[in-house]
Amino acid sequence: MTTLAKPAMRPARPEFSSGPCAKRPGWTPENLQNAVLGRSHRSKLGKARLQDAIQRTRQVLEVPDDFLIGIVPGSDTGAVEMAMWSMLGPKPVQLLAFESFGKDWVTDVTKQLKLPAEVLDAPYGELPDLTKVRKDADLVFTWNGTTSGVRVPNADFIAADREGITICDATSAAFAQDLDWAKLDVVTFSWQKALGGEGAHGILILSPRAVARLESYTPAWPMPKLFRMTKAGKLAKDIFEGATINTPSMLCVEDAIDALKWGAQIGGLAEMQRRADANLAALAAWVEKTDWVDFLAADPATRSNTSVCLKVVDARVTALDDDAQADFAKKLAAVLEKEGAALDIGGYRDAPAGLRIWCGATVETSDIEALTPWLDWAFATTLEQLQAA
């Protein structure tokens, strides 16, 4: 039996998954009563709800008026791939790869589209050398590495007079971090992250420069229907006015509207960012005084305030081989789940062994504070199991 006492209080909501993430505080299924069910999404009523989701996204995320917002299939992945398959080709391509999803985009570009591309990579916990980003090339990058807990600190590495376009996977950055719209041409995210929404739908945001690329360039490869954003060389604007390429779930749409209403009611983007920052600060205060754990992202300036990744640094664990360290981390997460103290906080399967705790705005800081004693207890319990084996 562990010598560390089991904490008396559990988090009120133990949902710390990095996607789908915790629902917004106070959520109930009754919030979805206005969902357009049993009707066509192309009906006047269905289209109005889709337009409402788009308009509320613009309001809460503070998207510039001349940017277009569309709801697309395939979650954030679908949105990123639509952009890459439709726009890349006429200029050199660079990709930043510092976590698993950024590496997926490298595979898309180099193996599927077969474009020559320069990959600027870095190990988990670090950023690539951003000074190597060229203004004459198209750039594909994640703003926040969901699986590494690392984010770009700002967009200063992107030239204001760039010649290429930037495609930014912002799925775990939107609503929590400052996106520099002047430097971004394509921005993507999914409802299942910072809004605590449901999966399967992506948001695709296009700047005027991105629209110009779509209307001036025709890719050499066949284009699947789900990726087609132009008709006869012109942008299919209806996609950004409430129409969709395929049938959306109107329950998911209503759920996103509910989350956006909540975001506006609590104070909009600034308050959502403040809540995420407060959650990270609560974890950071615990890490600072805890000797067995540290952030995967060593540099505080690049540390995510949403998908916070932690690593075990206790010498009794780091002395183990990689497989044994991974097994330890899995057992630690399993102990927490069994106790109902934290659900789904294991590190991403391709990332270094550790924990990943979602700290976005839908999570209460009081629950982060209630979690940290459980992390200590679970570590002590798992370590005793290891030593007894």
From TrEMBL:
<keyword id="KW-0028">Amino-acid biosynthesis</keyword>
<dbReference type="GO" id="GO:0004760">
    <property type="term" value="F:L-serine-pyruvate transaminase activity"/>
</dbReference>
<dbReference type="InterPro" id="IPR015421">
    <property type="entry name" value="PyrdxlP-dep_Trfase_major"/>
</dbReference>
<dbReference type="InterPro" id="IPR006271">
    <property type="entry name" value="Pser_aminoTfrase_methanosarc"/>
</dbReference>
<feature type="region of interest" description="Disordered">
    <location>
        <begin position="1"/>
        <end position="29"/>
    </location>
</feature>
<comment type="pathway">
    <text>Amino-acid biosynthesis; L-serine biosynthesis; L-serine from 3-phospho-D-glycerate: step 2/3.</text>
</comment>
<keyword id="KW-0718">Serine biosynthesis</keyword>
<dbReference type="GO" id="GO:0006564">
    <property type="term" value="P:L-serine biosynthetic process"/>
</dbReference>
<comment type="similarity">
    <text>Belongs to the class-V pyridoxal-phosphate-dependent aminotransferase family. SerC subfamily.</text>
</comment>
<feature type="domain" description="Aminotransferase class V">
    <location>
        <begin position="135"/>
        <end position="314"/>
    </location>
</feature>
<dbReference type="GO" id="GO:0019265">
    <property type="term" value="P:glycine biosynthetic process, by transamination of glyoxylate"/>
</dbReference>
<dbReference type="GO" id="GO:0004648">
    <property type="term" value="F:O-phospho-L-serine:2-oxoglutarate aminotransferase activity"/>
</dbReference>
<dbReference type="InterPro" id="IPR015424">
    <property type="entry name" value="PyrdxlP-dep_Trfase"/>
</dbReference>
<protein>
    <recommendedName>
        <fullName>phosphoserine transaminase</fullName>
        <ecNumber>2.6.1.52</ecNumber>
    </recommendedName>
</protein>
<dbReference type="InterPro" id="IPR015422">
    <property type="entry name" value="PyrdxlP-dep_Trfase_small"/>
</dbReference>
<dbReference type="GO" id="GO:0008615">
    <property type="term" value="P:pyridoxine biosynthetic process"/>
</dbReference>
<keyword id="KW-0808">Transferase</keyword>
<dbReference type="InterPro" id="IPR022278">
    <property type="entry name" value="Pser_aminoTfrase"/>
</dbReference>
<keyword id="KW-0663">Pyridoxal phosphate</keyword>
<keyword id="KW-0032">Aminotransferase</keyword>
<keyword id="KW-0664">Pyridoxine biosynthesis</keyword>
<keyword id="KW-0963">Cytoplasm</keyword>
<dbReference type="InterPro" id="IPR000192">
    <property type="entry name" value="Aminotrans_V_dom"/>
</dbReference>
<dbReference type="GO" id="GO:0008453">
    <property type="term" value="F:alanine-glyoxylate transaminase activity"/>
</dbReference>
<dbReference type="Pfam" id="PF00266">
    <property type="entry name" value="Aminotran_5"/>
</dbReference>
